Amino acid sequence: MKPQVYHVDAFTSVPFRGNSAGVVLHADGLSEAQMQLIARELRHSETAFVLKSDESDVRIRYFTPTVEVPICGHATIAAHYVRATVLGLGNGTVWQRSLAGRHRVDILAQDHSYRITLEQGTPGFEPPLEGETRATIISAFHLHEADILPGLPIQVATTGHSKVMIPLKPDVDIDALSPDLAALTAISQQIGCNGFFPFQIRRGKNETDGRMFSPAIGIVEDPVTGNANGPMGAWLVHHNAMAHDGKTLRVLGHQGRALGRDGVVDVNVTIRDNQPEKVTISGTAVILFSAEWAIDL
Which family does it belong to (predicted)? Predict the structure, then answer.
Protein backbone atom coordinates (compact mmCIF):
# COMPACT_ATOMS: atom_id res chain seq x y z
CA MET A 1 0.00 0.00 0.00
CA LYS A 2 1.12 3.55 -0.66
CA PRO A 3 2.02 5.67 2.35
CA GLN A 4 -0.95 7.54 3.79
CA VAL A 5 -0.15 10.95 5.25
CA TYR A 6 -2.18 12.57 8.05
CA HIS A 7 -2.05 16.05 9.55
CA VAL A 8 -3.00 15.79 13.22
CA ASP A 9 -3.25 18.27 16.10
CA ALA A 10 -2.38 16.49 19.36
CA PHE A 11 -3.05 17.27 23.03
CA THR A 12 -6.24 19.04 21.99
CA SER A 13 -9.63 18.24 20.50
CA VAL A 14 -9.86 21.67 18.85
CA PRO A 15 -8.50 22.06 15.29
CA PHE A 16 -5.54 24.43 14.92
CA ARG A 17 -4.66 24.14 18.61
CA GLY A 18 -2.26 21.81 20.43
CA ASN A 19 0.81 20.48 18.62
CA SER A 20 0.64 19.51 14.98
CA ALA A 21 2.28 16.27 13.87
CA GLY A 22 2.62 14.34 10.67
CA VAL A 23 1.63 10.69 10.75
CA VAL A 24 2.53 8.36 7.88
CA LEU A 25 0.81 4.97 7.82
CA HIS A 26 2.11 2.08 5.67
CA ALA A 27 5.64 3.49 5.82
CA ASP A 28 7.43 0.13 5.57
CA GLY A 29 8.59 0.68 1.99
CA LEU A 30 10.25 4.00 2.76
CA SER A 31 13.99 4.37 3.25
CA GLU A 32 15.44 6.44 6.06
CA ALA A 33 16.41 9.12 3.54
CA GLN A 34 12.87 9.24 2.18
CA MET A 35 11.41 9.53 5.69
CA GLN A 36 13.71 12.46 6.38
CA LEU A 37 12.69 14.16 3.12
CA ILE A 38 8.99 13.68 3.90
CA ALA A 39 9.46 15.11 7.41
CA ARG A 40 11.31 18.07 5.93
CA GLU A 41 8.52 18.64 3.41
CA LEU A 42 5.72 18.41 6.00
CA ARG A 43 7.59 20.77 8.35
CA HIS A 44 5.96 19.56 11.54
CA SER A 45 8.21 19.57 14.58
CA GLU A 46 7.99 15.76 14.33
CA THR A 47 6.51 13.28 11.89
CA ALA A 48 5.79 9.70 13.00
CA PHE A 49 6.28 6.85 10.52
CA VAL A 50 4.21 3.78 11.44
CA LEU A 51 5.83 0.46 10.55
CA LYS A 52 5.18 -3.24 11.08
CA SER A 53 7.06 -4.99 13.88
CA ASP A 54 7.90 -8.62 14.55
CA GLU A 55 8.31 -8.10 18.29
CA SER A 56 5.62 -5.53 19.12
CA ASP A 57 2.25 -4.46 17.76
CA VAL A 58 3.80 -1.59 15.87
CA ARG A 59 7.11 0.21 15.31
CA ILE A 60 7.39 3.97 14.96
CA ARG A 61 10.25 6.15 13.75
CA TYR A 62 10.25 9.88 14.46
CA PHE A 63 11.82 12.62 12.36
CA THR A 64 12.08 16.37 12.82
CA PRO A 65 12.63 18.36 9.61
CA THR A 66 16.38 17.84 10.08
CA VAL A 67 17.09 14.72 12.17
CA GLU A 68 15.68 11.46 13.54
CA VAL A 69 14.83 11.49 17.25
CA PRO A 70 14.25 8.51 19.59
CA ILE A 71 10.62 9.27 20.48
CA CYS A 72 8.15 12.15 20.53
CA GLY A 73 5.20 12.47 22.88
CA HIS A 74 2.74 14.43 20.77
CA ALA A 75 3.56 12.49 17.59
CA THR A 76 2.98 9.24 19.51
CA ILE A 77 -0.43 10.46 20.66
CA ALA A 78 -1.16 11.50 17.07
CA ALA A 79 0.03 8.22 15.54
CA HIS A 80 -2.05 6.01 17.80
CA TYR A 81 -5.06 8.31 17.48
CA VAL A 82 -4.85 7.94 13.69
CA ARG A 83 -4.29 4.19 13.89
CA ALA A 84 -7.22 3.71 16.30
CA THR A 85 -9.47 5.84 14.11
CA VAL A 86 -8.54 4.10 10.85
CA LEU A 87 -8.81 0.61 12.33
CA GLY A 88 -11.89 1.39 14.41
CA LEU A 89 -10.26 0.15 17.60
CA GLY A 90 -12.01 -0.09 20.93
CA ASN A 91 -10.43 0.11 24.38
CA GLY A 92 -7.15 -1.75 24.55
CA THR A 93 -3.38 -1.77 24.92
CA VAL A 94 -0.80 -1.54 22.14
CA TRP A 95 2.93 -2.15 22.52
CA GLN A 96 5.16 -0.04 20.33
CA ARG A 97 8.87 -0.22 19.53
CA SER A 98 10.97 2.88 18.81
CA LEU A 99 14.58 3.94 19.16
CA ALA A 100 13.70 4.75 22.79
CA GLY A 101 12.71 1.13 23.48
CA ARG A 102 9.41 -0.67 24.01
CA HIS A 103 6.49 1.30 25.37
CA ARG A 104 2.94 0.61 26.42
CA VAL A 105 0.17 2.68 24.84
CA ASP A 106 -3.38 2.50 26.20
CA ILE A 107 -6.32 3.44 24.00
CA LEU A 108 -9.60 4.62 25.51
CA ALA A 109 -12.57 5.12 23.19
CA GLN A 110 -14.72 8.01 24.34
CA ASP A 111 -17.36 10.29 22.78
CA HIS A 112 -16.65 9.20 19.20
CA SER A 113 -12.97 9.95 19.80
CA TYR A 114 -9.99 8.46 21.62
CA ARG A 115 -7.77 9.30 24.56
CA ILE A 116 -4.26 7.94 24.14
CA THR A 117 -1.94 7.24 27.08
CA LEU A 118 1.78 6.63 26.63
CA GLU A 119 3.91 5.04 29.33
CA GLN A 120 7.23 6.83 29.07
CA GLY A 121 10.68 5.51 29.90
CA THR A 122 12.26 5.26 33.34
CA PRO A 123 12.76 8.73 34.85
CA GLY A 124 16.35 9.89 35.05
CA PHE A 125 18.18 13.02 36.16
CA GLU A 126 21.63 14.35 35.38
CA PRO A 127 23.63 16.38 37.91
CA PRO A 128 22.33 19.93 38.28
CA LEU A 129 23.72 22.49 35.84
CA GLU A 130 25.61 24.90 38.02
CA GLY A 131 28.04 27.78 37.92
CA GLU A 132 28.78 29.29 34.52
CA THR A 133 26.50 26.84 32.66
CA ARG A 134 23.51 27.74 34.83
CA ALA A 135 24.25 31.44 34.46
CA THR A 136 24.58 31.10 30.68
CA ILE A 137 21.20 29.35 30.41
CA ILE A 138 19.50 32.01 32.51
CA SER A 139 21.14 34.74 30.46
CA ALA A 140 20.08 33.08 27.17
CA PHE A 141 16.46 33.52 28.28
CA HIS A 142 17.13 37.17 29.25
CA LEU A 143 16.25 36.24 32.81
CA HIS A 144 17.94 36.74 36.18
CA GLU A 145 18.75 34.37 39.01
CA ALA A 146 15.92 36.00 40.99
CA ASP A 147 13.43 34.68 38.38
CA ILE A 148 14.25 31.03 39.21
CA LEU A 149 12.39 29.19 41.97
CA PRO A 150 14.74 29.31 44.96
CA GLY A 151 16.42 26.15 46.15
CA LEU A 152 15.70 24.23 42.94
CA PRO A 153 18.16 23.24 40.22
CA ILE A 154 18.27 23.80 36.51
CA GLN A 155 18.71 20.19 35.48
CA VAL A 156 18.44 17.73 32.62
CA ALA A 157 15.58 15.28 33.20
CA THR A 158 14.46 12.46 30.96
CA THR A 159 11.81 9.84 30.46
CA GLY A 160 13.36 8.76 27.17
CA HIS A 161 14.22 12.07 25.51
CA SER A 162 15.99 14.57 27.76
CA LYS A 163 15.03 18.19 28.41
CA VAL A 164 16.53 20.95 30.56
CA MET A 165 14.10 21.81 33.37
CA ILE A 166 14.07 25.54 34.18
CA PRO A 167 11.67 26.26 37.10
CA LEU A 168 10.43 29.85 37.06
CA LYS A 169 8.70 31.83 39.76
CA PRO A 170 4.92 32.26 39.19
CA ASP A 171 5.19 36.00 38.61
CA VAL A 172 7.53 35.67 35.60
CA ASP A 173 5.75 36.51 32.34
CA ILE A 174 6.46 33.19 30.63
CA ASP A 175 4.59 34.21 27.47
CA ALA A 176 7.02 37.10 26.99
CA LEU A 177 10.14 34.90 26.87
CA SER A 178 12.19 35.44 23.72
CA PRO A 179 15.43 33.50 24.17
CA ASP A 180 18.70 33.87 22.30
CA LEU A 181 18.36 30.86 19.99
CA ALA A 182 22.01 30.87 18.93
CA ALA A 183 23.05 30.79 22.58
CA LEU A 184 20.70 27.87 23.28
CA THR A 185 22.11 26.00 20.29
CA ALA A 186 25.65 26.49 21.61
CA ILE A 187 24.63 25.35 25.10
CA SER A 188 22.99 22.25 23.62
CA GLN A 189 26.31 21.27 22.06
CA GLN A 190 28.07 21.74 25.39
CA ILE A 191 25.66 19.77 27.59
CA GLY A 192 24.39 17.18 25.10
CA CYS A 193 20.73 18.10 25.52
CA ASN A 194 18.71 19.87 22.83
CA GLY A 195 15.50 20.89 24.61
CA PHE A 196 14.98 23.72 27.10
CA PHE A 197 11.75 23.74 29.12
CA PRO A 198 11.08 26.81 31.26
CA PHE A 199 7.93 26.24 33.31
CA GLN A 200 6.06 27.59 36.30
CA ILE A 201 3.60 26.11 38.79
CA ARG A 202 0.17 27.71 38.95
CA ARG A 203 -0.45 29.02 42.45
CA GLY A 204 -2.37 26.51 44.59
CA LYS A 205 -2.93 24.06 41.73
CA ASN A 206 -1.42 20.87 40.34
CA GLU A 207 -1.10 22.65 37.02
CA THR A 208 1.82 24.17 35.21
CA ASP A 209 2.54 26.45 32.28
CA GLY A 210 5.56 25.73 30.12
CA ARG A 211 7.32 26.49 26.85
CA MET A 212 9.84 24.33 25.01
CA PHE A 213 12.68 25.57 22.79
CA SER A 214 14.94 23.26 20.79
CA PRO A 215 16.70 25.29 18.09
CA ALA A 216 19.64 22.87 17.85
CA ILE A 217 17.41 20.34 16.07
CA GLY A 218 15.47 22.82 13.98
CA ILE A 219 12.58 23.48 16.39
CA VAL A 220 12.48 27.13 17.44
CA GLU A 221 9.55 26.46 19.76
CA ASP A 222 7.40 23.38 20.17
CA PRO A 223 3.76 24.14 21.05
CA VAL A 224 2.84 21.23 23.38
CA THR A 225 5.52 18.73 24.35
CA GLY A 226 4.89 15.33 25.92
CA ASN A 227 8.62 14.66 26.24
CA ALA A 228 8.98 17.83 28.32
CA ASN A 229 5.87 17.68 30.49
CA GLY A 230 6.45 14.02 31.38
CA PRO A 231 10.00 14.56 32.72
CA MET A 232 8.73 17.71 34.42
CA GLY A 233 6.25 15.62 36.40
CA ALA A 234 9.05 13.28 37.47
CA TRP A 235 11.26 16.28 38.32
CA LEU A 236 8.52 17.77 40.52
CA VAL A 237 8.36 14.54 42.53
CA HIS A 238 12.16 14.13 42.62
CA HIS A 239 12.51 17.56 44.22
CA ASN A 240 9.29 17.45 46.26
CA ALA A 241 8.22 20.62 44.47
CA MET A 242 4.48 19.77 44.29
CA ALA A 243 2.22 18.16 46.88
CA HIS A 244 1.15 14.53 46.35
CA ASP A 245 -0.29 11.63 48.33
CA GLY A 246 2.88 9.55 48.27
CA LYS A 247 1.50 7.21 45.62
CA THR A 248 0.73 9.29 42.54
CA LEU A 249 1.02 12.83 41.27
CA ARG A 250 -1.24 14.14 38.55
CA VAL A 251 -0.26 17.34 36.78
CA LEU A 252 -2.04 19.16 33.99
CA GLY A 253 0.72 20.68 31.88
CA HIS A 254 -0.51 23.67 29.88
CA GLN A 255 1.58 24.78 26.92
CA GLY A 256 1.31 26.59 23.59
CA ARG A 257 -0.57 29.70 24.67
CA ALA A 258 2.17 32.06 23.48
CA LEU A 259 1.88 30.53 20.00
CA GLY A 260 -1.92 30.55 19.89
CA ARG A 261 -1.82 26.72 19.98
CA ASP A 262 -2.72 25.98 23.60
CA GLY A 263 -3.06 22.36 24.64
CA VAL A 264 -2.86 20.20 27.75
CA VAL A 265 -0.71 17.20 28.63
CA ASP A 266 -2.19 15.04 31.39
CA VAL A 267 0.84 13.76 33.35
CA ASN A 268 0.60 10.95 35.90
CA VAL A 269 3.61 9.96 38.01
CA THR A 270 3.67 6.75 40.04
CA ILE A 271 5.69 7.27 43.22
CA ARG A 272 7.72 4.88 45.34
CA ASP A 273 9.72 5.98 48.38
CA ASN A 274 9.04 9.61 47.47
CA GLN A 275 10.72 9.21 44.08
CA PRO A 276 9.20 8.94 40.60
CA GLU A 277 8.92 5.35 39.41
CA LYS A 278 6.78 5.55 36.26
CA VAL A 279 5.41 8.39 34.13
CA THR A 280 2.49 8.35 31.73
CA ILE A 281 1.26 11.16 29.52
CA SER A 282 -2.16 11.23 27.92
CA GLY A 283 -4.21 13.36 25.60
CA THR A 284 -6.57 13.35 22.69
CA ALA A 285 -6.15 14.61 19.14
CA VAL A 286 -7.98 15.75 16.02
CA ILE A 287 -7.29 14.81 12.39
CA LEU A 288 -7.36 17.81 10.07
CA PHE A 289 -6.84 15.98 6.76
CA SER A 290 -5.20 12.99 5.10
CA ALA A 291 -3.89 12.13 1.65
CA GLU A 292 -2.35 9.22 -0.19
CA TRP A 293 1.22 9.84 -1.32
CA ALA A 294 0.88 10.89 -4.96
CA ILE A 295 4.38 10.19 -6.27
CA ASP A 296 6.45 7.04 -6.59
CA LEU A 297 9.13 6.93 -3.90
Answer: Belongs to the PhzF family.
